[in-house]
Model the fold of this input.
Amino acid sequence: MKARIKLLIILTVLAVIAGCAKPKPEAIGSFNAVFAFVDPQEADLLKEPLELAIEHPIKTPRPEKLFRIIWGDTNTFEDATRHHIVLIAASIKSPGWWGAFVRRNLDKKAYEGVKKGQFNVFRKKDPWARNQILIILTARNADELRAFILTNMDLIFEMINNYCNEQVSKWLFGKYQGKGERKDLERKIAEEYGFGIRVPRMFEWEKGTAKERFLWLRALDPERWVFVYWEPLDSTQYKKISLSWLVRTRDSLCQIYYEGDSLMKEELTYRRIYFRNLPGIKYRARWKNVKKVIGGPVVGYVLDDIEHKRRYILDGAVFAPGVRKEPYLRHCELIMLSFNPDARAFLDSLSMR
Done:
């Protein structure tokens, strides 16, 4: 976070929503739905920046977004409080209902911090239901709030995305109908390949061997898969990740293991990242199979592991005709986010779970 940004994130809102005596129900609905509220007097300034910050279109055969904003008003607020993610954006000068909500629910210290331009983001866990978050974005006036949102879009997105990942991970790696995380399989992978990755109950080790430097994990209904591949890394390659190398390497692997799937190069986008302190890129694209006339979304990472002299490709893809792809693509990404290039550290953490 840049030092010039005047921002303090209050992880627990100091006075928002006093707890009630009766037990709270479990939150319901999709984890990628954000129930958002702004006052009509500020809507023209705030709605578009919030959509830019939160929704994030992804590469799928039919347009989809990582998150869907469901705009509400006072008539739909009670229903929204039953769901997982609630967001209220209003300045402390707003004359509408949500401005009054913010003024009423911030204590004196928090309110004074907003007036001084110090506090803009407040978050509270489980205000009305269990496994729920409330996010409040505020500022001295609507113009300042708009500027804050536009300047801190990554912060706002990551707050929501991290919460979503935490909740989905609980289900993905948890137990269901007597089946749970494939820990024996994880241990075998770590011992043979020299890296660790978590395997949910519905995934199988489909293909690949340590000798081939390739691992393919796959689930059905709908079909989604994750592969891990590595090549030796030397000092001349470090941080010089070529997109043409990525496309060529991935397509060659798919010729062997995936019946000829290939990346649609014209839709390939990427950004530079650090993953467990490893430099690399995160990419999104679509895959296609010309012979079968099918395709779907892809998300992946290329990582340089200097210590072990390996360049990794972690790649996740989905084939789910007729249904939303985002939830299943998130499953793939959460598996990849569990990747650890240090097999010993992974095995140590496995013994603790």
Notes: The two ends are 32 Å apart (CA to CA). The first helix runs from residue 43 to 54. The chain has two domains: 8-172, 183-352. Confidence is low (pLDDT under 50) at residues 1-20.
